[in-house]
Specification:
This protein is mainly α. Helix 1 packs across helix 3. It is elongated. The model has no long low-confidence stretch (mean pLDDT about 95). The protein has one domain. The longest helix is centred in the last third of the chain and has 25 residues.
Length: about 90
């Protein structure tokens, strides 16, 4: 597998991981007991830390990419394993 393919797969996993990680660990102003600014949405985060999300997404996507490349090399799960609906019998 080319290194550019691995980089592209990592980027895809990173974007997916970043969106999955966004809601975890975020608290609203009401949950933290902080006063809200007039006109502020009730769901606005009070402790949004993008650096933490980037770090978590980077680590998680590195793990997923490693598993993907190892599966590609070793062939643990192949396309035939994912065929949940086998072909119907030929004598029908």
């Amino acid at each position: 597998m080319e290194w550019t393919s691995i980089l592209a797969i990592y980027a895809l996993f990173w974007v997916m991981s970043a969106f999955i990680m966004l809601p975890f660990g975020v608290k609203t102003h009401d949950e933290m007991g902080i006063d809200k600014v007039p006109g502020q949405a009730d769901s606005a985060p009070a402790n949004f830390r993008p650096g933490r999300i980037v770090m978590r997404a980077s680590i998680f996507s590195a793990i997923l990419t490693t598993l993907y490349v190892l599966n590609y090399i070793n062939g643990w799960v192949v396309a035939e394993d994912l065929n949940f609906f086998p072909d119907p019998p030929a004598n029908l």
